[in-house]
Design a protein that fits this description.
Layout: H1 2-17, H2 19-41, H3 49-79, H4 82-86, H5 93-126, H6 132-159, H7 163-179, H8 181-189, H9 197-207, H10 209-220, H11 232-238, H12 243-271
Transmembrane segments: 20-38, 58-75, 106-129, 135-159, 171-196, 245-266
Keywords: Membrane, Transmembrane, Transmembrane helix
Protein name: Cu-processing system permease protein
Length: 273
């Protein structure tokens, strides 16, 4: 436990010294102010065309930002020899991985919170504040994307030998999970028997954190009707009083399984030198 907290503390310090983090902070703040301009032109409440556009903008930026910062953090440990040094000390691999995850989570969520805080402050001053429920759901959407994609970033950093390889894999995963997902989904579902469509749709949705979080927030905003009949069961369980707890449980399972996979990769590398 102590080792994990020390790794997390070290990661927070390194994260806030990383120029990439401040570049993304400026970019996200600019992006947040852009959302504020959208809201000032059309008051946002519930799900609408404006809300959908804002969700898509967040979906484009945050996963890519998370994949870059997370994967680069692990590959830098390999390139600079830090992990080789740390592995000679009595520090557990799980403590190292979880500490990395916690430290990076603090850095990334701080960036997100600062951007939304700045947006909320300015919107309050100029009198064009977002609806509170919508604002909270947007914040939850952003934090969910960060926490889930960070596990993917750790996986990328684990299998990559250097930053360039991590960059290539990160962009590829981001493209297929965010940009190319609708096309990929239609292509796969179009070649399977009709009875397999709904079960396969559920499995594929759980495999894509971007789609998983997006569906939850869209339904919570009241836009479940735009998703189509294939997602009727999703709308039903998300709108239940226990829907949020079920979603949080799914996210925790996703994070836990991903961290265990990353742990297995690093432990195998450690035992084989």
């Amino acid at each position: 436990m102590v080792d994990m907290l020390l790794v997390a503390k070290r990661e927070v310090k390194m994260g806030f010294r990383n120029p990439w983090a401040y570049s993304f902070l400026i970019l996200f703040c600019t992006f947040s102010l852009s959302l504020l301009l959208i809201n000032s032109q059309n008051f946002v409440q519930g799900y609408s065309g404006t809300t959908g556009s804002m969700l898509n903008l967040i979906l484009y930026l945050l996963p890519l930002m998370t994949l870059f910062l997370g994967s680069f953090s692990l590959t830098s440990e390999k390139e600079e020899g830090s992990w080789q040094l740390l592995s000679t000390y009595p520090i557990g691999t799980m403590s190292f991985i979880v500490g990395k995850y916690l430290g990076l989570s603090v850095v990334l969520i701080t960036i997100v919170a600062f951007g939304y805080g700045l947006m909320g402050l300015i919107s309050g001053v100029i009198g064009s504040a977002l609806n509170v429920t919508t604002y909270v759901l947007f914040l939850a959407f952003s934090c969910g994307l960060v926490l889930l994609f960070l596990t993917l970033a750790l996986f990328i950093g684990s299998i990559s030998k250097n930053r360039w390889q991590a960059l290539t894999i990160s962009v590829s995963i981001w493209f297929f999970a965010v940009i190319g997902w609708p096309t990929l989904l239609l292509a796969i579902l179009g070649i399977v028997p009709f009875l397999w469509v709904k079960p396969l749709l559920v499995v594929l949705t759980f495999l894509n954190p971007a789609e998983l979080v997006r569906l939850y927030v869209v339904i919570k905003l009241g836009g479940g009707s735009v998703l189509g009949p294939e997602y009727y069961q999703w709308v039903t369980w998300v709108q239940q009083p226990s829907g949020s707890w079920i979603f949080l449980t799914i996210c925790l399972l996703w994070i836990t399984c991903s961290v265990l996979v990353v742990y297995g990769i690093w432990e195998r590398g450690r035992s084989h030198g």
